[in-house]
Request: fold
Amino acid sequence: MSIGAPLRNVVILGGGTAGWMLAAALSKVFNAKGAVNVTLVESEEIGRVGVGEATIPPITAFNALLGIDEDEFLRETRGSIKLAIEFVDWTRLGHTYFHPFGQFGFDIEAIKFHQFWRKLDLMGRTPGIEAYCLAAVASQLGRFERPPPDPRSPLSALKYAFHFDAALYARYLRRFAEKRGVRRIEGKVADAVQRSDGFIEALVLEDGRRVEGEFFVDCSGFRGLLIEQKLKVGFVDWSHWLPCDRAVATQCESAGASITPFTRATARKAGWQWRIPLQHRIGTGHVFSSAHMSDDEAAATLLANLDGPALVDPWILRFKAGRRKKFWDKNVVALGLAGGFLEPLESTSIHLIQAGITRLLALFPDTAFNPVEAEEYNRLMTSQYERIRDFLILHYYATERNDTEFWNQCRTMSIPDTLRAKIDLFRARGRLFRYEDELFADANWIAVLIGQNFVPEGYDPLVDAVDINAVAQKFERIRDVFERTAAGMPTHRMFLNRAAASGGRP
Ligand code: FAD
Reply:
């Protein structure tokens, strides 16, 4: 093991969400102190994917790392609040459930809440589990209020994330990073120069300019210009489990003045459609399997299911579910779509960028590029991707739908052993264990497993040691408190208007 000198020059290739999130984080952590020079190269001509507008709650920690004021953030990105995803027609046609953020109820006598819920459910003494999650109740009422720091307030249980305009988000982060010293170079990268040991020493632009650096982060999107085209690390293909490989996307006008504080994911014949409400428009797209549906049919389905008139012509995006065999090789780390992509369901891609940045900061290399740091980074990121993969597969597999070839294939496919073990354990007595470093917690799994009718046969036997009538009373109180708390919040539109008018945090 060797210790090298601190790195002085970091080069980011690509200015999409990944490139600018990293540039912003590095500028905050290193550049402001003048410790590391950060250069970002991007090409306007090539452009970005231009989608990716829904996030999950850890994004609030990323904003806190940058010291971003949330009201300003909502104003600048024309963003909105996301409390949940509403899943329509996934379990069966006509069925709807929420996957809300945050916990269901509270543990009782150190036993998980959902175990008691299942006992009461079997006795016919409780409504659906959503009634016990504040984010689901507030979603249904279209309301939101920022949770206070006081842990005694029921509102403190509320977890939230954002929807935002992807182009405005990149622009916002760019301003943030450039203000803190990140240098941006406009130009198309034509090649990269490697040393004899394969390390990259410079990018070469089409016009012949060279951009030298010691450490390169490949944020070039699906192309993976450095990680794949240059270093050829290879790809782990998961398309046999996640069969959607295309999306047709557009934006449309919102109908009406209210804005739902949740994303909607509606299952279609050979995939699903997202609906992401922003302040000024709705972002929407149809994710589908090209083996089961043509581009024309997918676009026609999308256009037939818009809230209002389309604002732009639909465009097609192609992808393959999977990840790079290595996220970090030599002096290159791949972040964002350059590192891998599962699919848009559950909005995990921007989170994976954030997870990569956090881990990169924790393992930031020096000029010796100690291989153990890269190995640890690869281990951590592989585990993140694999656990998210299992959670996404669950949505396709746990369905009763038999109305199309696509859903028949999903319902009967073989699934990874790790997911099989998780499902079997849950379906017996509702037991769940979170894997090391797993993004999705028990509450997320419970929402989707129960939402898609993979309800446990029984419950934890320890539940029978607790007086069920007293538990039923507690359940009623929780419901009552959540209903009253949600009803007392402003509407989502009112909250956004207040954020728009405020100069800072209210
Ligand atoms: P890109 O946006 O593709 O950016 C690549 C950058 O590299 C661009 O700046 C480009 O100009 C530059 N570049 C490439 N080649 C060169 C070159 N030769 N020279 C110079 N510059 C170059 N994620 C979520 O979290 N939530 C969602 O709701 C969500 N929805 C999605 C829906 C779809 C259909 C798809 C496909 C993705 C979705 N994602 C979502 C993923 C999300 O869009 C991406 O994670 C995010 O946009 C990051 O992209 P990126 O920065 O890695 O790549």
Notes: The mean pLDDT is 96. Residues 8 and 36 are 5 Å apart (CA to CA). The longest helix spans residues 371-397. The pocket of flavin-adenine dinucleotide is lined by residues 14-19, 41-43, 46-49, 51-55, 188-189, 219-221, 223, 225, 247, 249, 285, 317, 319, 336-338, 344, 347, 349-350 (CB under 6 Å).
